[in-house]
Amino acid sequence: MILLHRLVRLLVVLLVVTFLSYALLGLLPGDPTTQILGLSATEEARAQLRQELGLDQPLLVQYADWLGGLVTGDFGTSYINQVPVAQELAERLPVTLELLVAAQIVALGLAVPVGVAAARRAGGTLDQVLTAMSFALLSTPVFVLGVLLILVFAVTWQVLPATGWTPISVDLGWNITSVLLPAITLGAGQLAVYARLLRTDLIATLQEDYITLARARGLSPRRILWRHALRPSTISLITAVGLNLGALIGGTVIIETLFGLPGIGRLIVDSIFSRDYLTVQGGVVLISVGYVLVNFVVDLVYAAVDPRIRHA
Amino acid sequence: MKRWRRLAALSLASVVLVACSGQRPVAVSEKSSDPTTPVVGGKLVYGLSADAAGFNPVTDQFAAQSYSMATTIIEPLVSVDVNGDWKPYLAESLTPNKKSDEWTITVRSGVSFSDGTPLTGEVVKANLEAQKASPLNNAVLAPVSSFELVDPKTVKVKLKQPWVAFPYYLAAQIGMIVPPSSLADPRGASQKPIGTGPFTFQEYVPDSRFVVAKNANYWRKGLPYLTQIEFRILPDSQTRAQTLEAGQLDAMGTSRDEDITKFGALKDAFTVQRSQGMAVAEYMFMLNTAVKPFDDIRVRKALAHAMDRKAVISTLRGGLTKEADGPWSQDSKWYSPGGGYPEYDLAKATALVKEVEADKGPIKFEIISTPDPNTMQGIELAQDMWRKAGIEVTIKQADQADLINRAVTGNFAATVWTQFSSPDPDGEYIWMHKAYAGPVGAISLNFTRLKDDKLSQAFDVGRTSPDEATRKQAYATVQQRLRELVPYVFVDHLDTGAIIAKTTVRGIGEHVLPDGEKGLPMTGSPIPYHPFSGVWITQQ
After folding, report:
1. Regarding beta strands B43-48 and B228-233, do their DSSP bridges make them parallel or antiparallel, or are they unpaired?
2. pLDDT of residue A297
3. What is the percentage of chain B residues whose pLDDT exceeds 90?
4. Is the CB of B136 less than 8 angstroms away from the CB of A41?
5. What is the H or E stretch that residue B202 is in?
């Protein structure tokens, strides 16, 4: 039942998002014919190409055609390079997916110890230092952080590559090195958010009666913190992880351009500039489905983390 | 639990160590003690600012970066030498008849594509016919009436009018020859190019890298020197420069003056090769002479008089470029000094503005710009200069596709523009001749929509006369008319397009043509491209 409900919601989201993006793209001046044919093409050639691509049809008809294809699993073919959109997305997806996962690992992997350390002595020197660092990270634009990290790790110390991408299938070691700096750059902002959320929730949890009881029973502060307080304090964190996926995907556009990664974000932005509507639509579908699925997984994780939700 | 943690920490540390300490495999070069003798072998990693929109010269529009990558595999019929004259390349010869309305192309013998197909007259004819039929180029090839196969090695090109500069067009996309298999499978050719060139296709990951390997059967014996080239697509100019600095690129293209200044100062580590001559594009403000207020020549002149080109150059280019007064740079043989371009004179500009205002009221217009910070900086500088002369300018941002669409359809008053880097002045024919100027709303390749008889006649003479002195005189007239009529407010010759390489990389811009003459070092804009067959890497 839950699955069916989610499926219906996914379909509604897809319809709304894809129609809106199609309509917005339609409002943009210009079409792909100049991009494909160049400046010196004649009006007749442009008109013929518009007809071949179906761009002479009303927007609603174009959308319905595209939707019809999507139902049968056909994402269409890119106007610009004549490659099936599904193929383009499949080639780019692993890069963005790995970047997103690595960024989340960096953010969560550091946010949990930082949040716990800050909450343990709330208001203390360590908490204040970590708070200041969190705000510094939050207020640093990703492109500034990226350039700084490249300067330090690639140009000065020369321990990591400045740019470029090596797929896992080619070389695992080089893959890890090529994703490290982009992942740290992308995850840094999230790290600050997650650490602040966890700190706040942990401080509240540590005021609960059962924690006082645990203390009274003589449990060590470390055990109380890690075994009894941390788990119930992660609900906001888990919610943020799901919701922040959108922001992270937005961030990948900059990161992929900065570090020269061939991911979905760059593909969509380039496709918008070249008016490659079908590729943009394919990317929008992929991101929408991903976003809904991640938040579905987040709901499942809630239940695992907090039994009260499971039994509700 | 503790043991588990230790194991996990060890595993993570070993993965990171392996990742950080590994070396990318590189080809081993044959040693040479002479630093001027080319070394065979080695891999070149070359940074480019953008990806190609496909590698099929018949169906895909080529930009400068497309030429960088594609010309390692696909070669043209014609090339251009260091003096700017055309020379046969895949063609053994190109011979015009007396009127230059018929050209006979003889195909070079002993040349094969990397798939084994021999290069023949029939293949060349099929390529040229495909180009003529392609919507990309049919406007440019409008003067061609037919291609005829005379014998297995000879193709005759029949023209509707004399066209002395025709071979120059065969030095670019139109003249790049692919095998019949590519003509039959344009989509495949777009992703996996095949040609007669010094390298063969190895790998292409869109928006990431394009890798080519040495063609062992290349028809020019002893070439190429490199075993492999990896082109890396790095759109961010800052991180591209940092990647070169970090040693992960051997060379890169740039159009930033700060890169030229910074790497130029590190002479022991890097070389900087800047584009020059006809390859240099011009930075300008393009005016639509068919709409108000630019249908009035006084307004166009006022804009030019108010433009302090020196201030623009010192502010935007670090003082590296030279002021432009026309479409061809001063170091080109086609440049005509003559003078007559409205010099910076704010008093004259203000006087012209007042004169127009007395007749027609205040002068206002909208200028279109792409939203990138560098372009906006230039526009805002110009806006300030024109405001001082009493002209009210508003800036409208549009992305590249929209801007081009507006230029083509005439839906603009003024816009920032960079153009004019053809090797021969005839390359600008369709952009300025009155025959290509349409009304606002219709497609017009003459974007300024200036219909000037003298200018168009001069272009016609330049196109049809085989005598170089006559052609020079004709193009001097073109420049004179542009200075008098001001459809473009020229700012500078944008020779900040450059290739920066480690000093271990040799031969960039030093290639030799099949007949032994030096080739044109670099061409294209905003970032130039060059052949790679003569590029080599010294021992580290």
Report:
1. parallel
2. 84
3. 82
4. yes
5. strand B199-205
pLDDT computed for residue A28 by the predictor: 81
Is residue B178 a contact partner of residue B189, using CB atoms and an 8 Å limit? yes
Q: Which has the closest alpha carbon to B61: A50, A35, A274?
A: A35
Average pLDDT, chain B: 91
DSSP label of B194: -
Cβ B61–A37 below 8 Å, yes or no? yes
3-state secondary structure of A171: coil
Q: Please give the full DSSP string across B431-462, using - where no structure is assigned.
A: HH-GGG---TTS--SSTT----HHHHHHHHHH
Planar angle of CA A310, B1, B4, nearest 5 degrees: 105
Distances (CA, A) of B105 to B70, B224, B237: 23, 26, 42
Q: Which of A152, A160, A163, A256 to mutate to probe the B interface, most B CBs <10 Å?
A: A163
Token readout for B74 is: 């696909």
Partners of residue B155 on adjacent β-strands: B105, B149
- Among the listed residues A203, A187, A197, the one whose alpha carbon sits nearest the alpha carbon of residue A137: A187
Give CA–CA dist B243/A151, Å, rounded.
Answer: 9
CB atoms within 10 A of CB A105: 12
* Amino acid identity for residue A116 in this structure: V
Long-range contacts of B296-301 (CB under 8 A, 24+ apart): B296/B356, B296/B360, B297/B485, B297/B486, B298/B352, B298/B355, B298/B356, B299/B352, B299/B353, B299/B356, B299/B363, B299/B391, B300/B485, B300/B486, B300/B487, B300/B489, B301/B342, B301/B352, B301/B486
**Alpha-carbon span B375 to A226, nearest angstrom:** 54
Q: Which of B187, B238, B399 sits opposite A273 (nearest CB)?
A: B399
Please, what is the Cα angle at B378 between B368 and B342, to 5 degrees?
A: 90
Touching A: B residues 359-418, CB under 8 Å: 398-402, 404-408
Q: Report how far residue A82's alpha carbon sits from residue B200's, in angstroms, rounded to the nearest whole number.
A: 22
| Chain mean position to CA B165 | 18
Give the 3-state secondary structure of residue A214. Answer: helix
**Mean pLDDT of the B451-466 span:** 97
Which secondary structure element, helix H or strand E, spans residue A283, and what is its range?
helix A277-305
Q: Which residue would you say has higher pLDDT here, B230 or A40?
A: B230
Rounded distance between C-alpha atoms, residue A40 and residue B55, angstroms: 19
Give the residue from chain A lying closest to B24, CA to CA.
Answer: A174
Q: Within 10 Å of residue A137's Cβ, how many Cβ atoms?
A: 17
Q: Tell me the C-alpha distance between A136 and A134, whole Å.
A: 5
Radius of gyration over every alpha carbon of chain A, rounded to an integer in angstroms: 24
The reported pLDDT for the residue numbered B33 is 52
User: What are the chain B neighbours of A82 within 8 Å (beta carbons)?
Assistant: 54, 59, 186-187, 190
**Token duo for residue A23:** 């309509």
Return the SS3 of B273. strand
pLDDT in tens, B36-73: 789 999 999 999 999 998 999 999 989 999 999 999 99
pLDDT at B261 over 90: yes
Identify whether B526 is preceded by a cis peptide bond (ω within 30 of 0).
Answer: yes
Q: How far is CA A65 from the centre of its chain?
A: 29
Calpha distance B177→B194 (Å, rounded): 9
| CA B148 centroid distance within chain | 31
Bridge partner list, B154:
B106, B151
The alpha-carbon gap from A247 to the nearest alpha carbon of chain B, in Å, equals 21
Q: pLDDT under 70 in chain A at which residues?
A: 1, 309-312
Among candidates B187, B242, B401 on the partner chain, residue whose Cβ is nearest the Cβ of A155: B242
Query: How many residue pairs from chains A and B have C-beta atoms closer than 8 A?
Result: 167
**What is the predicted pLDDT for the residue at B492?**
96
- Interface probe for B, chosen from A39, A91, A255, A268 (most Cβ of B below 10 Å), is A39
DSSP of B110-126: T-B-TTSPBP-HHHHHH
Q: Which two tokens stand for residue B415?
A: 């816009």
Q: Average pLDDT, stretch B465-478? A: 96
Cα of B394 to nearest chain A Cα, Å = 19
Alpha-carbon distance A88 to nearest alpha carbon in chain B (angstroms):
9
